[in-house]
Amino acid sequence: MALVIYAGAAQFMAVGLIQSGAGLLEIALLTLIMNARHMVYGLSLLEPFSKAGRWKPYLIFGLTDETYGLLTTIEPPPDLDKTKFYAAITVLNQVYWFVGCMVGSLVGSAFLFNTTGLDFALTALFIVLLVDQVRAVKKPEPYLAALLGCVLALFISPKNFLLVALVISTGALALLRERIEGRPRGTASQGVSEKSKQDSEEKGDRP
Amino acid sequence: MTYFVLVCLVMGLVTYFTRALPFLFFSVRKPPELLDFLQKYLPAVVMAILVFSMYKDIDFRAAPYGIPALVAGAITALLHLWKRNVLLSIGAGTAAYIIFIRII
Question: How much is the ipTM here?
Answer without folding.
Answer: 0.84
